[in-house]
Design a protein that fits this description.
single chain; mainly alpha; 4 helices; 0% strand
Length: 93
Amino acid sequence: MMIDRIGSINSIASGKYGWNNQINRTAQTDSINLSQEAVERSELYRAHELVTSTSDVRLDRVAELKQKIADPSYINDTIIQATADTIMDVLGL
């Protein structure tokens, strides 16, 4: 007894049954929508990360002040009085 083949060996590739034509060819894009609260929290998070990664010490100002203090003519009664007034204002006295 002999069994005959029905169709070709690779019937899917040949497109005989139309399976290749049934693939959805429409392009779909993914998208997300963020709430206003999520956007604000993201901005706050970025600002917090920036602040925490930044040094509290401004080395350029420290070097400038060291240079001024090293000069003996810089410290006079006017500078001392201004410094004392600033300290009193900060302390609320």
